Amino acid sequence: MLFAMLLGSCAKGDGKTHIYLQRFFGECGAEYGGSTDVAKAEGECGIITTMINRFNAENPDVQIDVNVVAWPGYPQLTAQVAARDPPDLVTMHEGVISDYAAKGLVEPVEGYLRAAGISPDGFTEAARQGVSMYGQIYALPWDTHGGLFHVNTALFAKAGLMRGGKPVLPNTTEELVAQARQFEQRTGKPYLIQSNVGDPAFAARNLYTYMMANGAVLFPDAHHIKLNTPIGIQVATFFRRINAEKLGSQNMDTPGAIAAFVSGEGGIYPTGTWMIGSFEQEATTPGRPLYKNYAVYPYPRLWGEHVEFVSGHSWVVPTRKRTPQQRDAIARFFKFMAAHNYDWVRTGHLPAFKAVLDDPRFKALPHRADIAPLASIGRPLPSNVQRQNAIEGIVGEEAAAAFTGQKSIPQALAQAEHRVNDLLGQVD
Amino acid sequence: MTSQRDWRGLLFVAPFLLLYSIILIFPLLRGLWLSLNQVDLFGAGHFVGLGNYARLLDDPIFGTSLVNTFVVTLMIVPALTVIALALALALNRASRSAAIFRGIFFSSAVLSVTIVTLIWRFMLAPDAGFLGFLAKAFGGEPLPFLSDEHLVLPALAITTIWWSVGFPMLLFLAGLQQIPEDMYEAAALDNAGRWTTFWRITLPSLRRTVVLVVMLQTAAQLQLFGQSQLLTAGGPSGASRTAVLFLFETAFGRWELGYASAAAEVLFLLILAVTLTQYWATGQSKEASNGR
Amino acid sequence: MAADLRRGRLTPLGWAGLLIGAAIMLAPLVWTLLLSLKNNGELVGHSEAALHGPYTLQNYAAIFGNSLTLRWLLNSTIVALGQTAGVLILASLAGYGFARLDFPFRRTLYIFVLVGLAVPSQAVILVQHQLFAWLHLHNSYPGLILPGLIAPFGVFFMTTYMRGIPLELDEAAMLDGASRWTIFWKIIVPLTIPAQSTLAVFTFLGAWNDYWWPLISATRSDMYTLTVGLAAAQMNYAQTSGLGYLMAQAVFASIPIFIVYIIFQKQIVRAMAGTAVR
Fold first, then answer.
1. pLDDT tens digits, A237-257
2. Least CA distance to C141: which residue of chain A?
3. How far is CA B150 from CA B7, B72, B235, C112, in A?
4. What angle do CA A282, A288, A290 make, to 5 degrees?
5. Can you tell me the distance from the alpha carbon of C243 to that of C59, in angstroms, rounded to the nearest whole number?
């Protein structure tokens, strides 16, 4: 027992400044070990592992000790903060920052940004909105991720929906329904592949995006949500229609939906940036249904403005006592991450820095030119709204019930509102 | 009875009771205190008396979760007990094949809930699932076990029974060991048939074990959590949300420690009521006073 | 001989039932094994690929390639063994006390223990976490072992079994002048070996597969147990990739438990074959 305690708290006698970093994205030490070759790494795990290795190599007076946690890592982080022993750097979804920031459990990072020579003007709009709250910046934004229409172009061709080598995407709800029917008639398969089961994020994303497009203000203040409005009903009715007329697949959960799309069982799978890597792999493997038959675009504009609900990953600095050397090390880490944002976006996520959007290397990556608009049309939820994860769970659950007809639309939206307002009412 | 009321008896139970009081009872009591406050995980809260409980009464999500919990327990416990007993009876012998079969029926119990739910998703999902495949092979339509609000609780029950049959089986086996041989000898001498032997000798002697299994399983399944969280995420729309999942979401997801504590107290009292009722109804208390 | 009944042959219906039951038990497990032997990429969207080759051991290599896996295995072993030993000792002592000895408040205290059966662990876990933080027990073996020792099941179980042992044995020994402790140690304990073995298997399993407590108590990766460590190593939140790796984890983590089960099975069988309680 003594040994174990010593292990946890021993003073590192190597003269280096130690920074404790906690992240998800998996563990791939077997494949990447101590490699510092970021350019050759693939996937979220590979790229982040090599990046941190490289930082350690380039900064011999600093040692980043990495703790990998299971996604999303919040139960552990909560426990660590409660025990007054949090890490120095943590990966955090932008929607969650406010929960910790509102209580002073994470530090504002302007000081680190300044020391690193990073200006918030260089962030993309979506990124900047995601990390700014209560008049300060509470994280280094790292990427933006959101929903995308992943398209099976071979089936689209069969349905007569290709033009000039690009899929024809609808511009209004009526067009979508017409195209969906046409697609169904000509290919015998559903137009949309949906993960209606066990995936509240799917339904929430759809509802949020198209309500925002219609100009709805989802959160008039930090303690209330408004969903049961004419706009909300309009959007929900549209998705209900898709399910009622079987324009989309039914009863699928996420693994099922992925399997269906990958096997060419439908035209479009509206999942997100995180699947680009896997689908691209399918698209470059001969013999696969998606081989050379894959394209991807942001959600189409069906009403009003072209905007989309997005979120993003970021790096936060939990509050605790630190030495000046540690603060300096954190600033250097920020600088390194900002400089290597291009490497991270090879995962399929969108960059948090405008400069990377304009980088020719970025534009040359497969499909990026098509999805780049997401960085400008992406809108996170207002950053001062807390418990966004829990809210998404509630909204997604009720929205899915509305879309599949399990509940009536006004009932589902009203209950979603009621539950969320109840939750936010408990928050300071 | 040769025992006297002797303080020294306490020495045997003291080590356990000491740890138990510190690590379980104290948090339980503190939880009771927390349930009377509106407090989140990090803040200082303020006292609200029975406010959280009033809120719970009004909360349809909590109500549904309680109903779901009881329904799924009723689906699981009788079936599980019968199956485990049948297996124990069939495999209560020293032969090699019996040992192998015992190992097979125990094997599901070694898996963690993460793996079990993953496996059963592949069994139950209509498209990719094995059961769906079977249904199609027989010309039927696959049942949407995980997305139909009426099928979701049976799905949880089936998964749980598959997972949990090993231990009750072992308990029954251990219980069968303690039936004295003379009873069977006497029955054999009287040329009693198998069924008679079972009903008149085996089952009554197993009574204590049956009660043990039923009580433990009821208490355990009323606390069902992992399968609900991982297999269906409590869905669709809360149709398979159990009480502990509600608790977990409230505490870890919404940080509402006070409210979650109140829900925990309510659940605790319900389970306690059920457990104690079973204990008294089956005459255990009588045996306790006889010291048998 | 009772053995006649016990070795009575099963009816054909009985055999059929057993075989079907065994198939239902095994099919998902075989499926798990097959999935664990496939490359992750091949399985994305096509889990049926597990039914045919090529098979590979790369997922298992990845488990061992992680430099911490063996450390996690060690942690899990220490914690599980520690909890098992602790529970056997505490529950046997307490069980004997409740089953055999008459001391003040015995009935009340027994109910007090039963009450614990009704407490869902999720209800107390956060307060327990605060308590252990105050005691500076996090990220330590005692911190991981202690909460498992208070499970009321052990006491309840041992009490029930000890009650089933005929009192005449105790009385005979007492006539010979044996103390309570001697009766406990020399007579009762050996007679409850089947129950102890069952309890050992149960406790070991519970400790081995425990997830939530080690997750929030052992927050430094060198103190993770195997369950937590392997979950952390998962590539993707929705388990949409890394399926083969996940299944390899399951197989790998199950092996020690099977070993424990097989060891204790022998105890249960040995008791079966001869030393029935008179």
1. 999 999 999 999 988 888 788
2. A1
3. 55, 12, 11, 38
4. 60
5. 10
Which residues of chain A register pLDDT less than 50?
1-11
Contact yes or no for B119 and C32 at CB 8 A: yes
Contact B126 A251 (CB under 8 A): yes
Residues A44 and A106 in one domain: yes
Q: Between chains, do A81 and B232 touch, taking CB under 8 Å as contact?
A: no
Asked if the ipTM is above 0.90, the reply is no
**Chains in touch with B (≥3 Cβ pairs < 8 A):** A, C
Q: Could you tell me if A285 and A195 lie in one domain?
A: yes
Count of CA atoms in the C-beta half-sphere (13 A) of A367: 28
Indicate whether A60 and A137 sit together in one domain: yes
Calculate how close chain B gets to C54, using CA atoms only, in Å. 21
As a whole number of angstroms, the distance between CA B46 and CA B38 comes to 6
- The β-bridge relationship of strands A136-137 and A308-311 is unpaired
Tell me what percent of chain C is helix, strand and coil, each rounded to the nearest 5.
75, 0, 25
What is the CATH number for A235?
3.40.190.10
A11 falls within a domain: no
Instruction: Name the CATH superfamily housing domain B46-284.
Output: MetI-like (1.10.3720.10)
Domain tally for chain A? 2
Q: Which domain holds residue A366?
A: 16-141+313-373
Whether C278 shows a pLDDT value over 50: the answer reads no
Contact A135, A286 (CB under 8 A): no
Q: Which of C119, C146, C205, C270 to mutate to test the interface with B (most CBs of B within 10 A)?
A: C119
Whether C40 maps to a domain, the answer reads: no
The residue among A129, A142, A101, A90 whose CA lies nearest residue A314 is A142
What backbone phi and psi angles, to 5 degrees, belong to A21? -115, 135
Looking at the structure, do residues A180 and A283 belong to the same domain, yes or no? yes
Give the start-to-end residue ranges of the domains of chain B: 46-284
Interchain contact, B112 vs C194, CB within 8 Å:
no
Residue C186 is part of a domain; what is its CATH number? 1.10.3720.10
C164 touches B: beta carbon within 8 Å: yes
- Nearest residue in B to A399, CA atom: B237
* Cβ–Cβ gap C109/B112 under 8 Å: no
The answer on A305 and A202 residing in a single domain is: yes
Nearest neighbour of C45 by CB, restricted to A1, A43, A262: A262
Q: Which domain holds residue C182?
A: 67-233
Q: Is residue C189 part of a domain?
A: yes
C205·B20 Cβ contact <8 A: no
Residue A38: Cβ-neighbour burial (10 angstroms; 0-12, 13-18, 19+): buried
Report field, pTM of the whole predicted structure over 0.90: no
In tens, the pLDDT along B42-96 reads 767 889 989 999 999 999 999 999 999 999 999 999 999 999 999 988 888 778 8
Does A261 contact C235 at a Cβ distance shorter than 8 Å?
no
Dig out the tokens for B194 from the structure: 């198998």
- Give the nearest partner residue to C205 out of B110, B243, B244, using CB atoms: B110
pLDDT tens digits along B151-205: 999 999 999 999 999 889 988 887 787 777 777 777 777 777 777 777 777 788 7
Residues of A in contact with B235 (CB under 8 A): 197-198, 200, 397, 400
- Residue C21 placed within a domain: no
**Contacts C236 to A, Cβ<8 Å:** 26, 71, 274
Residues of A whose CB is below 8 A from B61: 419
